Amino acid sequence: APDIPLSAVKAHLSDLQSIASANGGNRAHGRPGYKAAVDHIKAKLDAAGYTTTVQQFTSNGSTGYNLIADWPGGDTGNVLMAGAHLDSVSSGPGMNDNGSGSAAVLETALAVAREGHQPDRHLRFGWWGAEELGLVGSNHYVRNLTSTQRSAIGGYLNFDMIASPNPGYFVYDDDPAIEKVFKDFFAAKGVPTEIETEGDGRSDHASFKNHGIPVGGLFTGASRTKSSAQAQKWGGTAGRAFDSCYHSSCDTLANVDDTALDRNSDALAHAVWTLGAADDGGGG
Ligand code: DTR
Ligand code: CA
Ligand code: ZN
Ligand code: ZN
Ligand code: ZN
User: Fold this and answer.
1) Which phi and psi (to 5°) does residue 283 adopt?
2) Which active-site residues does the annotation give?
3) Whose CA is nearest to atom 6 of ligand 1?
4) How far is the CA of 160 from the centre of ligand 5 (A)?
5) What is the ipTM score, two decimals?
6) Which one, of 264, 97, 100, lies nearest residue 172 by Cα?
7) Is the Cβ–Cβ distance between 85 and 127 less than 8 Å?
8) Residue 282's pLDDT is what?
9) pLDDT, tens only, 28-68
10) What family name appears in the similarity comment (predicted)?
């Protein structure tokens, strides 16, 4: 997989910051900043050759939007999806939650196009609306697939908060094969990981898992406190939250850890390239 340039991911983040600043300070469901963010990302994907779809839904009396981008080619009977929720809470611009995941997924999709990558499996990327209202957008997406469309999705990778300022390196343990891809990546980099325990059902992967689709993903922590043991293995500050600006107005560009963002963006690309091969997993 290509290295994902941190500078490119940060450029998307600052775009999302600008969009929030120009629209009342947030990218929340039902607020103008959200749709502006959808339009920004859609334009880049269209220009890169993706087939994009904006799916509308209603929640709390406001229209919400999911952005789906299909990379032409690959076996559409064997789809690999990666996604991130694009909405923020209304209290701030949501740079870690979840500009970080949105930007990393975007730059990975753009890298696929840049490389002219032709994986065996069909690649699809998603940016979800109204996650903060209760996984509303991703649930709407999965529920509105036919059973055939659902069974064609062999795996969904979720990225929600992947650049916390006091980061941990957590890997979802929902599907062993997906988990292994991420753990092997970090092991090769000498970065220890832990199993994600804070969030079963707390992000968009749950919408897919609830319909029997294998899921995985990465997380750098929210309001839980980093232990001294964790600070020893990861650095950062023991006794402080992984993200003390979680759901706060201080979740700005300054609330993003560059090393975590870079490592997780590269792990994302590694997983898309690795799982994009129609390998039957080999072995016994
Ligand atoms: N609910 C997510 C933040 C969150 C909390 N725990 C986890 C675990 C895995 C992913 C995300 C999260 C939000 O506020 O968007
Ligand atoms: Ca990188
Ligand atoms: Zn951008
Ligand atoms: Zn949140
Ligand atoms: Zn989130």
Assistant:
1) 70, 180
2) 131
3) 199
4) 5
5) 0.94
6) 264
7) yes
8) 45
9) 999 999 999 999 999 999 999 999 999 999 999 999 999 99
10) Belongs to the peptidase M28 family. M28A subfamily.
